[in-house]
Specification:
mainly alpha; elongated
C-alpha cells in the first residue's frame, strides 16, 4: 500500500530535475573560433548602441524609483 506513495515521492525529484534542466539549457551549440571581421552594418549598430547608452547613462542620468 506504500508503493504508490514511494513512486510519487520518487517522481517528484525526477520531474523537477527535468523541468529545471529544460529551463536552463541553451539551445544549439556554442560558437568556437575567431569572430568574423565587422562589416559596415555592424559598425553602424555599434555607433547607435553607444549613442543610446550615452544618452541613457549621461544625459538622462540616474533613474531610481526610490528618491534619495
Amino acid at each position: 500500500m506504500l508503493w504508490p506513495l514511494g513512486i510519487t515521492l520518487g517522481l517528484i525529484p525526477l520531474v523537477t530535475g527535468l523541468a529545471w534542466w529544460n529551463l536552463i539549457r541553451m539551445p544549439g551549440r556554442s560558437y568556437r573560433g575567431p569572430l568574423p571581421a565587422p562589416d559596415d552594418a555592424l559598425m553602424a549598430l555599434i555607433r547607435e548602441l553607444r549613442r543610446d547608452i550615452y544618452f541613457l547613462a549621461v544625459e538622462i542620468g540616474e533613474r531610481n524609483v526610490i528618491p534619495p
